[in-house]
Amino acid sequence: MSIKLEHSVTAKCKPEHVWQKFQKLEEWPWWNRAIGQAKWIEGQPWQPGSRFMLELAYPKQMAFEPVVTENAAPQTVAWKGEGSGITGAMRFRFDAQADGSTLLKTEAEFSGWKTKFATDSIKQAIHKTFEEWLNALKTEAEKIAREELAHS
Fold it and tell me: Which residues pair with 82 in a beta bridge?
């Protein structure tokens, strides 16, 4: 059994502004309350094959060591990781829109024996985490865009 979740939000900025904030992995806990800790443990940041430690603070505290599987910055980054009986693959997309905004989208697929115990409330909690993550990233990227505009 696998669980697939998606969420998207539109930000008033360019994909480069989103990537500027997103790429600073170690700073994720500063603006994303779902992340307890994040740090690189192997390889060059965001290069395929590189690994990082990601500790979720909620909906359930757990740690993963995902491997970057794709980097087409500033538009797409993806990783895959295993932990606690679950394998997860995540993809973040930051797509420029015709009106100058950016569509931020995350797609996740979870598999493994523990997924058969995932209730609707657990799925909703995970979806809410992604929603908060993208909304926080949107807020931070829009701040960068406003600061850039103010200094030009």
Answer: 87
Tokens 């609707």, located at residue: 120
Q: What pLDDT score does 86 carry?
A: 75
Residue 29's domain spans which residues?
2-33+71-150
Nearest alpha-carbon partner for 106 in 120, 126, 125: 126
39 lies in some domain: no
Domain count, the chain: 1
Over the stretch 99-134, which tens digit does the pLDDT of each residue have?
999 999 999 888 776 666 666 777 787 888 889 999
Residue 45 counted as domain residue: no
Q: β-pairing, 76-83 with 35-42?
A: unpaired
CATH number at residue 95: 3.30.530.20
Q: In the prediction, which pLDDT does 35 show?
A: 93
Report the distance separating Cα 87 and Cα 80, nearest Å: 7
Angstrom CA distances, 109 to 18, 127, 150, stand at: 23, 12, 40
Residue 129 in domain: yes
Q: Which two tokens stand for residue 89?
A: 């693959």
